[in-house]
Amino acid sequence: MTTLHGAVRRRHGMLARLAALWPVYLLAALIVASDQFLLVYAGPRWLGWSTDPYVFRSYRAFHDGYDPSRPQLIVIGSSRAEQAAPTEALQREIAARGLPHQAWNLAIGGGGSPLALWLALEELTPITRALPAGSRIVYLFSPFELNFLPLPSVSATPAGGTMLYEQGYVHLVYKLQHRSGWARLIVLESAQNVLPRLMFLLNRGAATTQSLTANRIRCNHAGLENYRVLDINAWAFERLADTFRDRLVIAYPPVGDAQMADDREHRVFELSAPLVERMARDYGTRTMPDLMPRAALPADEFDRDCDHVTSPEGARAAARLLVGMLAR
Q1: Which of 178, 123, 191 is CA-nearest to residue 151?
Q2: Is there a smaller number of Cβ atoms within 10 Å at the N or the C end of the chain?
Q3: What is the pLDDT of residues 51-62, one digit of tens each?
Q4: How far apart are CA 179 and CA 184, in angstroms?
């Protein structure tokens, strides 16, 4: 009996100690509940967090407006591609020529890189795996993108956040941001608006930060400092080539003289050329470096912005060149 009473007393004592920890349990429950409330309700409703898997408006428009009976002309790239040939300019040019194509500009302004583009296009699967005959995907490729890692656009999809974390570019919150409201708050509010630099693991993420020598660059410094081809972008570039094969056309967006001088000084064309050439050799992609010559645009096009097309005349000229490529 003594042994039995001792066991009962120990059990009661354990239960009493556990009961005494009720504030801890309550706090844990509140943290979990507030985390999911922030992620599912408060974030989208009050902070404007998007729950749309098609993370960019142009991709949602493509998903909703895609006609599988018509060949597609799709332009991808960074902001240089986005501004050079807006969807509306492409559509007007196609209509003027009486072509059956639909046209879309799916470039990612402010966040274009091969990795960001591949992740965003993967969200459109299976559409992008079954484009109609005669479709073309034109990658207006700026070589700086291979040394560019835009965290917001890359981590906008769950696969992107996980990939960045597993490759050692960012902290765990980027992987968890699609599951945890608090992690998403840190990424979207603190990382972007308050502490943008501290969220990088500097051993590998420094590719996207400005260096102390950036003031020597005449135009846009993005990706130029310490230029090299990041493995993760080379991998994504190859995934794009493997996905679209001979439907993928790689061309270069026109830029001003100052930007071209910067690019040549940092050898971006020279260092990126082997990758572009290998895509043509291994996957049959088409390379058209002179598709959009600078001379085809107004003479003063880059007086206002050294590396972006900004005038309606420039956009119309770029649309004519891109749509004209369909006949080649």
Answers
A1: 191
A2: N
A3: 787 878 899 999
A4: 8
| Cβ-proximal residues to 178 (8 Å cutoff; 6+ apart), any chain | 158, 161, 184
Q: What is the DSSP letter of 132?
A: P
Do the beta carbons of residue 225 and residue 210 sit within 8 Å?
A: yes
| Residues 118, 249: Cα–Cα separation, whole Å | 15
Q: What does R_g of the chain's alpha carbons equal in angstroms?
A: 25
Distance of CA 99 to the CA centre of its chain: 30
Contact 188, 199 (CB under 8 A): no
Which stretches of 146-256 are DSSP H helices?
151-154, 158-166, 173-176, 181-185, 202-205, 231-244
Q: Model confidence over 197-235: pLDDT tens digits?
A: 444 443 344 444 444 344 556 788 888 888 889 999 999
CA–CA separation, 241 and 142 (whole Å): 16
Distance (Å, whole) CA 190 – CA 273 = 38
To which CATH superfamily is domain 57-327 assigned?
A: SGNH hydrolase (3.40.50.1110)
